[in-house]
Amino acid sequence: MDGRDIRLADFKGHVLIINLWATWCGPCREELPLLSGYHRLQKDHGLDVIALATEDSVPMDKLKPLASMCSLPFVQRMRGDYEIMKGVPTNYVIDRNGIVRYAEAGAFTLAALNELLVPLLREKPLEAAEPAP
92: which strand partners? Predict the structure, then answer.
């Protein structure tokens, strides 16, 4: 929302959650603070989260106050093969090597985030992994 372009390559070596959400979606509004808090706790361990509101009709001046309360960046537009799956929220999780490891519609719980992300955050990127004997 600050006008700069970001690319998937900008997150190389990090675990990335791409969260597709809508302002009218109750589970989305509950999930955003969870993702924001989780991001605050895990960002130093290599977690990044970006949130993309799915409605183009919502003016930026309506989204900016919400974005300022979250620790994660809000994205205006996204190009690529990411789409809303069966509804919002839809989450994609991309590992440190750029591989999509999770793609599901539905809100995360804290337990689900821990189950999925803790192992991914412990993995090293391929180029940082130790060579095979």
Answer: 18, 103
